[in-house]
Amino acid sequence: MSPPTALLTDQLRFTTIAHRDHVFLSPLSGPKVDQVLSMLELPHGSRVLDVGCGKGEMLVRLAGRWGARGVGVDVNPVFLADARQRAGSRAPQAALAFHEQPATDFPAEPGSFDAVLCVDSTEAYGGYRDALRSLAGLVRSHGRVLIGERFWRRRPHPDYLAALDLELDDLLDHPRNVRAGEEAGLVPICTAVSTEDEWDRYEGLYSRAVEEHAAGHPEDPEAESMWKRIRRHHEAWEHWGRDTLGFGLYVFQKK
User: Fold this and answer.
1) Cα end-to-end span (Å), the chain
2) What is the domain range of residue 180?
3) Model's pTM, two decimal places?
4) How far apart are CA 179 and CA 183, in angstroms?
5) Residue 22, domain CATH
6) 3-state SS, residue 8
7) What ranges in 23-173 are assigned the alpha helix state H?
8) What pLDDT digit, counting tens, does each position of 187-239 carry?
9) How many domains is the chain built from?
10) What would the pLDDT profile of 164-177 be if each residue is shown by its tens digit?
């Protein structure tokens, strides 16, 4: 059963506010992203799809530095407006297009992309393993898949699972994230795991943005609930998250 529309709308608004100051909507730094993008080894003019593209930063970097053509898909209109502005100012000659729609509604021909990206958006396909299978179908033979996913660094405390509204099996550990790609018929090329500094910066910006919104907009009927939610989130991160939750980027090649 799909979540109620009101719940999806509330979550979209919250994540838009929380990611106000982020370039990447995950615990990633620019140098790490550039290093991983270089492992896609794309020839000039390659065609790339970014599912859950957020603010479009990865596509803009691929277009500006490697001459890629690209399509970004996301359900967040605010992030897409940012993506279009980034593309227009930093890669104005690039053939980049951004579409506001669910990933599963985007009409993509099998094997029609040189590379497919899906970073922290695997829920668009129902989960990590389903995303791997779907992305593998969209990329050409010997093309590459870049996928970003959380993982358990250690077995999570039951209270942390409740705070995240997750079940233990909703995430894998790092080695099993790699193995899942192999099970989907892909060959692992490289991995990169977020550092504590990257996590601290991500979580700090995330909490600060929501707290500042709540303090600066007392007329917002959701301000108090947002403030309480971000305090619970931050406390759970400090108490359990920094030792329990990881994030990895995984580059695979299609056989």
Assistant:
1) 35
2) 5-254
3) 0.94
4) 6
5) 3.40.50.150
6) helix
7) 30-38, 57-66, 77-90, 128-138, 158-164
8) 999 999 999 999 999 999 999 999 999 999 999 999 999 999 999 999 999 99
9) 1
10) 999 999 999 999 99
